[in-house]
Amino acid sequence: MFLSRFIAQRDSPLYTSDQTGNKVLATTITITGTGCPIPSATRSGPGVLVQTDEVALQFDAGRGTTQRLANCELWPTDLDAFFVTHHHSDHLVGLADLLLTRWVMDRTDRISDLPVIVPEGPAKKFVNHVLDAWSDDIAIRKEHAQRSNDPGIEILSFSASNEVNEVWSMGEVKVLACKVRHEPVFPAVGYRIESPDGVIAITGDTLVCDEVTELAAGADVLIYEAMRFEEIQILPKKRRFILDYHADTRLIGSQAKEIGVPTLILTHLIPEPLSDEDRQAFIDDIRVGGFTGELIVADDLDSVTLGK
């Protein structure tokens, strides 16, 4: 298994080369946003982009997602599917921007509807109405540009399950999902992406739980939301409720060791690491848990490539 880490640039390749110089298939993971609900000058809202030679898939769309895709030289019109983990605003506030920009950029009136894969429940309800507030804007743009089509969404909903089940596929790429533990937000799901190059697991927002163990079994890369409970426990009581449904870095380290995943990426970082010392604290927590593999405390646009 070939595995490399790099900072995404606008000319980042989707292919790597073997020792003979021949191009080989590569699956590239780019963290489009590592932030949380608290605004950051350098971190966009939560999101993960997974690309192969076949598909480009976006998971969640926090604030600034469309701009981060542009950093990757990927337009919204290039996306093949969008996946929702749950209905919290920090994970979806960028979806309307993504859909509207995709439509505005289409000059052919022939672009296909964007498949939006979403668990049934509040998240599906949100997607059904995500463009309602923009109806007047859409109408005047259609009239002015003499367009016939509306922004296209193909909603593909599924019933969230405790078991890992396939929810979407294209060619040799499959996406599976299962429930995770983010109560009282229900349902919340994590996703598992299987390509010829390997397996990627994305937790979404969750406690450290058995469901993640199932989701990430045999994975090459595990992308985990991360909160330093030690820092949150000293906050005033009225702010400590977020401990109820996020993942403690120390427990993440223990679980990642148990799963045996080679590469662990931390994102949705709480509190935001603002210094080298803050970043090291995330690393130390994970190592205390026993994980000894490759560990990335992600910044926006950090990427990992898997290839044969």
Would you write up a description of this structure?
This protein has 308 residues and is an alpha/beta fold. Helices cover 24% and strands 31% of the residues. It contains 9 helices and 16 strands. Strands 1, 2, 3, 4, 5, 6, 7, 8 and 16 form a 9-stranded mixed sheet that branches. Strands 9-10-11-12-13-14-15 form a 7-stranded mixed sheet. Strand 2 and strand 3 form a beta hairpin. Helix 8 packs across helix 9. The chain starts with a strand and ends with a strand.
Poorly predicted runs are 4-24
Helix content: 10-25%
Number of strands: 16
What is the CA-CA span between the terminal residues? 6 Å
Largest sheet: 9 strands, mixed
Beta fraction of the residues? Answer: 25-35%
Q: Helix tally? A: 9
Using the alpha-carbon principal axes, give the shape: globular
Write down the Rg: 19 Å
Structural class label: alpha/beta
Mean pLDDT: 92
In N-to-C order, the SSE pattern is: EEEEEHEHHEHHEEEEEHEHHEHEE
Outline of the structure:
With 308 residues, the chain is an alpha/beta fold. It has helices at 65-71, 89-92, 95-105, 122-129, 135-145, 210-215, 229-232, 249-259, 276-288; strands spanning 2-7, 15-17, 23-33, 47-51, 56-59, 81-83, 114-119, 153-158, 165-170, 173-179, 189-195, 198-202, 221-227, 263-270, 294-297, 302-307.
Summarize the helices and strands and which ones pair or pack.
Layout (H helix, E strand, L loop, with lengths): L1 E6 L7 E3 L5 E11 L13 E5 L4 E4 L5 H7 L9 E3 L5 H4 L2 H11 L8 E6 L2 H8 L5 H11 L7 E6 L6 E6 L2 E7 L9 E7 L2 E5 L7 H6 L5 E7 L1 H4 L16 H11 L3 E8 L5 H13 L5 E4 L4 E6 L1
Parallel strand pairs: 5-6, 6-7, 7-8, 12-13, 13-14, 14-15
Antiparallel strand pairs: 1-16, 2-3, 3-4, 3-16, 4-5, 9-10, 10-11, 11-12
Helix pairs in contact: 8-9
